[in-house]
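Case study.
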Amino acid sequence: MNDQWPRYEVFKQERDGGPFRNVGSVHAPDAEMALLNARDVFARRPACRCLWVVPAAAIVATPIVVNAAGDAEPADASGPLEPYAVCGKSSERQAMTYVDYLGRVEARSAAEALRAAPALGAARIWWVFPERVISRSDPEDAPGLEAATGKLFRMSNQYHTVVTMQKIRRGDEGEE
Amino acid sequence: MADEAYKGQVAAFEARIARGEKIEPGDWMPDAYRKQLIRMISQHAHSEVVGMLPEGVWITRAPNLRRKMVLLAKVQDEAGHGQYLYHAAETLGVGRDEMIAALLDGRAKYASVFNYPTLGWADVAAIGWLVDGAAIMNQTMLAHCSYGPYSRAMVRICAEEGFHKKQGQEMIIRYAAGTATQRAMAQEAIDRWWWPALMMFGPHDSASSNTPQLVRWGIKTKTNDQLRQEFIDDMVPALQTLGLSVPDPEMRYDAATGHWAGREIDWDEFWRVIQGDGPMNASRLDARRQAHEDGRWVREAAAAYGEKQPGSGSAGEQGRKESLLPPCAPAPLHPSESTT
Amino acid sequence: MIDPTLAVPLADRLLAMADDELILAHRNSEWAGHGPILEEDIAFANIALDEMGHAAIWYGLRGDITGEDTDRLVFFRNAGQYRNVQMVELPHGDWAFSMLRQYLFDAAESIWLGQLAASGYEPLAQAAAKIATEERYHLRHTSLWLRRLGLGTAESHARLQTALDALWPYARQLFVPLPGDAALVAAGILPDPAALAHEWHGRARPYLTECGLILPDETPPRRDIPRTEHTEHLMELLAVMQSVARLDPAAEW
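After joint prediction, the assembly is written out as follows.
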């Protein structure tokens, strides 16, 4: 195993019923630690209700890897039929998050899942991975994840520097 | 023929950027774009991590409980920002272990500003207002960067960085109007951090060879001198309002230009510190090397445990080449995949 | 609100709880920028931040009773006036030492908070319930690390065993009651610290064994060490922690 441990892509759901969005990744020695560290790295702010971690090595993304002749590898039809998570990025607007989880398709390989992905919507970038590699935070942890954002001193609106400077310029007594 | 095809690809790539589209991992990109970004992003990541050290030593000395928590939260954020940036660089095909090795070997650079020592509590305040203030200007610009992962990391960092500058400014405001000890401490800190903060904006535009290409490729939207001037015009009047001065006897307002101007930066010092001869260069890298070495047995233990777990092999879909996120250019695209 | 005869015992107990959190948080914060990997710099800083917050809550509850200012208590008491257990003032050592100390403390804390949530003194019950949410993560974090260090490599195992041998004798002080605790227990405000020891042993011993560790022989000490006694480490810690505040006691920072 690499000195810095393998990467796990992290998906975060901000609110109950909201989309799962890819926020970045953590390096972790296993899924259990990945889930725990994902909270500290990504749940400090903004809000968080649920987290998923997915081994980066299990994710297949567009464009499809091609051979020297420019042809896509034929979709492997020998694997077991299983649900594949499909994620996509459809907007060019500035954001903090990358692909969103869009749904699942039944497929025998990642390549087959990528071909079926457009059935779930339009996107410029697709990610697919077997749903069985997802590690999810325990629903019982939701209050703890939400509480992670409770430290108000991380919010810049707690520091009234603009108002204070204005008062000083106007010559008011004191600073507050 | 190949040369024409390549020029066509570059033109299409630049047109995408001009349209405001993000370049994502797997998209075609010129090798120079990829290399520039790996250099910039990894340097930025290293800066965040090294930047934990000058302020980190004051967490144990913070003079009240709130300041202690705020400083720890700030230093924690810096680790987080390094983490987001290493992630962005990794999407370009370089591993975090490689980047860290380059830093610890002395091959990689990081922001020179962290090669200065923090000698008093008020240095934490000065760093917050001046150094983070300068960084925010740069980061706000980079949030518009054409490379998706870097842009996203910067948007997240900008959202978190707000309180970093404000907590510093709040302290300087308070100490400037505080006890004689505090006023002296604040002025001394401004005196020591003013020039390092100005140096953060880099060499003069005339001495900065990278800039035109970085502008064309949507990585940079303002020049070094433009940003530096904005910073000076904002900070000098604000400090004066508080009864504090900058350590530049030539600093004055030029009514003709509408800008504040003072003496030249000491460019000898600037280049010396970048080349590794600053007051704290050796110490910063020593600290990082120490942490890395001391932590080796810990990382190995976690790795050994992870590998012993049942099913630990399946996570990586071993042996299937297609399971890796595709490296960036120059892999040819599938005929049905367009660049848009 | 509080029965006047219980005010002093409660204030004493709150001070002890606050000092434990503060001193442990201070030691944990020393790791920032020096952790074994970036993700742990972030995670352990979170634990330290939570603990500082908990300290602030307990100092605040004490201030509600005594009128004392939190920062005065933190920055202007000498080592002899602090009421933390010795275990938390020890230098942070290596990662194994810090993780094991954290585990022993968190395991006790989670049992303590669980029972405190049923306190007859409402502010204490509410604070305990709120703090317990964060404590779950602390215990989970250190539990996961203990497994990985105990069962990882020969080196990590040896270091963890050394840490356990060093820390185990200090752990019992967590359950030594303060002089005023008996009255608080009788009034339904505090769980009995001595009774918690049994539950703690019931959880910690099997888990440590599961992590491949050998529990040191339990030779009962000659006496219970009171929280008024400290090692020299606390004096060094406070000299650093209070250095800036004491430069100008009149200043507001």
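Observations recorded in class. The CA atoms of residues 77 and 173 of chain C lie 22 Å apart. The two ends of chain C are 33 Å apart (CA to CA). We will return to this complex in the next lecture.
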